[in-house]
Amino acid sequence: MCYDDSARVPFPPVIAGGAADAGDLTLRSADGTEFAAYHARAENPNGAGMLILPDVRGLHEFYKELARRFAEAGVHAVAIDYFARTAGKDTPRDESFEFRPHVEQAQPDTVDADARAGIEYLRSADGGSAARVFTVGFCWGGSNSWRQSATQEGLAGAIGFYGIPSRAEEYISRMKAPLLILAAGQDFTPVDVTEKFAADVRAQGVEANVQVYPDAPHSFFDRTFDQYRGECDDSWRRILEFVSA
Q1: CA 229, CA 91: separation in Å to the nearest integer?
Q2: pLDDT level of residue 1 (50, 70, 90 thresholds)
Q3: Where are the beta strands (DSSP E) in 70-228?
Q4: In Å, how far are 105, 154, 167, 202 from 63, measured between CA atoms?
Q5: Domains (ranges, CATH) in the chain?
Q6: ∠ CA(38), CA(41), CA(145), 5° rounding?
Q7: pLDDT tens per residue, range 24-47
Q8: Of the candidates 89, 123, 111, 99, which has an alpha carbon nearest to the alpha carbon of residue 31?
Q9: Phi and psi dihedrals of 128, rounded to 5?
């Protein structure tokens, strides 16, 4: 897994305000599936919305905290769960959740359908009427996020931490929204594999920005790792610049 229950989201470098409203909610996918989500609306919005795609554990506390951190930075946010079709929407996604069978049953098209419902929520009045919607994901969610560049209409950009490029490669020819790729140099995915993925995306005429943190491990974006504070601050800066651009 990427993050256990002790992980904590780094604070953004600039706090634009608090979360005007935050909490659990239920969203509905186009196939009628109801699934769990968590939203946070920015007190001082900058016009952007962020769909958060979690790691293999689904919607656990780290991603709820991340939604609140985005709201503090002026970005409306909603984090979604993937596993309502196989695990139900009300089962807690804490460390007791046996996530692996549900990851194996999850399909790209249902993940994308649930992502679409989250995007539509951010564009709605309830979600903050975001004018520009982005996605961000971690590990499995990182490659899920990059895939949204190909599967979502009008997406402003797709951000991924620690994603495995092979999970998104078949979608490169359909990608439209720019990518931000944040990679750990000490991850199990070789840096040259990540850089080739970005080059292949750029060859299709789509922007793909790569930042490698040479000394950082998988899941470095965690404020309990004080030695990676610089990498966390830089990641936040790049995300917020990407959203502003």
Answers
A1: 33
A2: low
A3: 76-80, 132-138, 157-161, 179-184, 208-213
A4: 22, 24, 22, 30
A5: 19-244 (3.40.50.1820)
A6: 55
A7: 999 999 999 999 999 999 999 999
A8: 111
A9: 115, 0
